[in-house]
Request: fold
Amino acid sequence: MADFLTTNGTSYRIETIIIEAKKTLTLVSPYLQLSKTFYERLKDASNRKVNIRIIYGKDELKPNEKNSLAELENVELYYFENLHAKCYFNETDMVITSMNMYEFSEKNNREMGVHITKQNDSSLYDNATNEATSIIQSSEIIQLTKTIRQLKKENKSQASTNNKQTDKKPKRGYCIRCETRIPYDIEKPYCWDCFTIWSQFENPEYEENVCHSCGEFGTSNMLKPVCYSCYKKYEKITF
Ligand SMILES: [Zn+2]
Ligand SMILES: [Zn+2]
Reply:
């Protein structure tokens, strides 16, 4: 028998499905944003050799998120424009819900869901997996190749063809909270909107997830807005 889930139950179940996936994991969610926690769960699954399929349909993925996904093995990413369904399953368990993937760690919305097991609700489970397969067949596959961003680590051959500008500070950086592109300034690593929110608390060590310089995932804050390699590259040398 399927179980009814409220918001907390839904988050818990989705997380468990990711954690317990042994062979396959399918995540169907129109809105895809990778929180750090969510990304780490996916990374663990990928390290366990689970085949992961993600189908989304709204919002362009940020370069940071695409790069992070590209680093994972066994991840297939599909885009289906008219996607509205939300469904998450591994080889044994499934959740059909109103909850988008990025909301699984948030508790603000009221969501509902049902938890189904392949063992106890096999025809329901099969119908839903078939529908997911059908959506994938009409989807566009998104190539996950790492975008080498300007001013990121160059390899030696590129570096030698570059002129002296290599260690010059970047002109543009990323907001350490929302990844919007902003002028590079380690004194001002937030965009206007995020700065407004940050300044209500003014905690210089409030943890963010993005390097101001390269835009990759990593712990950052107002005091240390760039990752170590960017710091070494652009700040240490020039001081
Ligand atoms: Zn921002
Ligand atoms: Zn960096």
